[in-house]
């Protein structure tokens, strides 16, 4: 587990938090120029988690033959998913080694929590880092499917929380796509400034 630094509200740019040692010859991976543009381009990946969410609700409802959630508790689960975005960022930090320092904060400009670090990870470990927060959607959605159909409050909360956990990583899925498409196997991947780079050792 790396060192964690809490930055609170980050009012300026993000690039100043990502200035680790980048070797000469590192190649920049094509990425959107801003957080807003990233979220817009990444929206193409939203149908995938939405399909999982729809299938989970439809499957449980049809198999039980009844309403399986309380709308009030669905809303409560969604609301609980917002503070859990900080846990989402902590999960991003976990694959980094102990000598890395990850800065976590709230970035009001993009209405998002962020984990900022400039430290090399292997290509596979970078993919793990990006996708690890999906457990915040997969686990509650799995529990939702397993819980008795007449537990309307529990089902509603798990479903709402699971929706947030599955939808919020869509920009991370875009990052994974870009890395897998634009980098060779065996390379190192590293955030630096506003960009994302790769290089071979």
Layout: helices, strands, pairs:
Layout: E1 3-9, E2 27-28, H1 35-42, H2 47-64, H3 71-81, H4 84-93, E3 101-107, E4 112-116, E5 121-122, H5 123-131, H6 135-146, H7 152-167, H8 170-182, E6 188-192, E7 195-199
Parallel strand pairs: 1-3
Antiparallel strand pairs: 2-7, 3-4, 5-6, 6-7
Structure description:
By secondary structure, this protein is of the alpha+beta class. The chain contains eight helices and seven strands; from the N terminus they run E-E-H-H-H-H-E-E-E-H-H-H-H-E-E. The protein has helices at 35-42, 47-64, 71-81, 84-93, 123-131, 135-146, 152-167, 170-182, and strands at 3-9, 27-28, 101-107, 112-116, 121-122, 188-192, 195-199. It has a four-stranded antiparallel beta sheet. A three-stranded mixed beta sheet has the order 1-3-4, covered by helices on one side. It is elongated and about 60 Å long. The model has no long low-confidence stretch (mean pLDDT 94).
Alpha-carbon distance between the termini? Answer: 23 Å
Q: Strand-residue fraction?
A: 15-25%
Number of helices: 8
Number of strands: 7
Describe the largest sheet: 4 strands, antiparallel
Helix and strand string, N-terminal first? EEHHHHEEEHHHHEE
Poorly predicted runs of 5 or more residues: none
Quaternary structure annotation: single chain
The largest sheet has its strands arranged as: 2-7-6-5
Secondary structure category: alpha+beta
Helix amount: 40-55%
Radius of gyration: 18 Å
What average pLDDT do the residues reach?
A: 94
Shape: elongated
């Amino acid at each position: 587990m790396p060192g964690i630094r809490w930055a609170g509200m980050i009012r300026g740019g993000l690039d100043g938090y990502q200035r680790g040692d980048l070797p000469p010859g590192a190649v920049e991976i094509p990425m959107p120029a801003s957080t807003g543009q990233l979220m817009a381009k990444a929206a193409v990946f939203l149908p995938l988690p939405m399909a999982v969410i729809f299938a989970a609700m439809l499957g449980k409802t049809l198999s039980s033959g009844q309403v399986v959630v309380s709308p009030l508790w669905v809303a409560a689960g969604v609301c609980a998913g917002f503070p859990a975005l900080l846990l989402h960022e902590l999960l991003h930090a976990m694959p980094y080694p102990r000598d890395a320092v990850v800065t976590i904060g709230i970035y009001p400009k993009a209405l998002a929590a962020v984990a900022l670090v400039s430290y090399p990870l292997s290509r596979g470990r970078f993919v793990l880092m990006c996708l690890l927060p999906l457990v915040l959607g997969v686990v509650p959605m799995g529990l939702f499917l397993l819980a008795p159909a007449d537990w309307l409050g529990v089902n509603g909360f798990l479903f709402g929380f699971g929706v947030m956990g599955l939808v919020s990583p869509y920009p991370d899925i875009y990052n994974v796509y870009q890395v897998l498409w634009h980098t060779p196997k065996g390379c190192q991947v590293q955030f630096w400034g506003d960009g994302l780079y790769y290089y071979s050792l």
